[in-house]
Design goal:
It is a single chain. By secondary structure, the chain is of the alpha+beta class. It is 55% helix and 16% strand. The chain contains six helices and five strands; from the N terminus they run αβαβαβαββαα. The protein has a five-stranded antiparallel sheet with strand order 2-3-1-4-5.
Length: 172
Amino acid sequence: MKKEDKTIVIKQIATTVGEYTNFYLTDIATLNAAKTSALRRECNKQEIKLVVVKNTLFKKALEQTGSDFSALDPALKGNTAIMFSNNANSPAKLIKTFAKGTDIPKLKAAYVQESFYVGAENLDLLISIKSKNELIGDVIALLQSPAKNVISALQSGGQTIHGVLKTLSERS
């Protein structure tokens, strides 16, 4: 590859890193063509961008972002495919479901919510990370539950208050 072509590829990768908040480094080298196509289709369905890159070009692209991604260096050996996503746990769930029985794709490392996770042992932890929409849903549910409790207490309390007032008026 010519130097000019490498420069273009590095800029494209750096732009892609900037567009997505999370990315996963995986190894899909031993997948055959049919399984690779199936993985790509599943990635497209879940809005995950799958890109196969050379490690040196990816390192240079990360350097251009201005952030320190040196924690990922141990994972940048051998074949590397990158799953870019704005949803924190979608790629982890996809890796887990797709790898049943074969362990491919294999998680090498991940950069999720400004944190580094190196090693396949982090896959279950990454699956449990809640996405932004899931967290918003949890907050809304928490905010609604006290209001629901107050409303139900007032509705049931109408009978209770009436009973208390009736009892007090009878005592007088």
